[in-house]
Amino acid sequence: MSKNKSLISNLFSVNRKICIVTGALGGIGNTISNLLEINGAIVIKIDILEKRKQDKNYFKVDIKDNNEIKKVINSIYKKYRRIDALLNIAGVSDPSNFKNNIDVNLTSVYELTNIVTEKMVKRKKGSVVNFTSLNAELGFKNNLGYLSSKGGLKQLTKGFAMDYSSKNIRFNNVGPGYFKTNMTAKSYNNKVKRNERLSRILMNRFGYPEDLFGIIVYLISDASSYVTGQDFYIDGGFLAKGI
Questions:
Q1: Among the listed residues 17, 40, 44, the one whose alpha carbon sits nearest the alpha carbon of residue 29
Q2: Is residue 146 flagged as an active site residue?
Q3: Which fold has domain 3-234?
Q4: Candidate list 58, 77, 80, 146, residue with the active-site label
């Protein structure tokens, strides 16, 4: 490694990296997108929601719509001639619709990742970060679709890591614990449920989206050039707690 590459500021740099973020208007996706941009990355934001402020790098598209997703990825590649990172953050937790959990959290990630890796292969370089959950490791009540989708996503990442290791494209999972976002607002605002969760978290607080930025920078920068097929749980110690 050259002296220049070994400097921490270069090793962990995301400057000028072309990063695609799905679920970019959600609590976590929006924060990660903003922090990446502040640090010099070019962030392509994808979400199904309408963005109030005009943004040339925002695409309103349903990630389940494979044809539209292909058009978006092709237009990005045509403009920048490379894609450095894909962050699959978009997800749903829908206890009433098993299939929708699978379609959004698993199948759409598979389809989108295949489209993006076609571009990454041309440079033989890239990083894909999939967002799983504590639900990929533990059983929780009344949400079989979400558990199944996140457990499947965990293994999908490992399969991709094996298939693309020779192309120097890396795949890793980030599994958030309990974070204070719109998705968790209902349980957070319920004092009984909030205290139940806090009793399992060693750091005795819910996470904030900013708490995930460090692991994202690590996984899409040169600092993690020898890391693939791994699971990183950012959970305040939830999984580590015993009796």
A1: 44
A2: yes
A3: Rossmann fold (3.40.50)
A4: 146
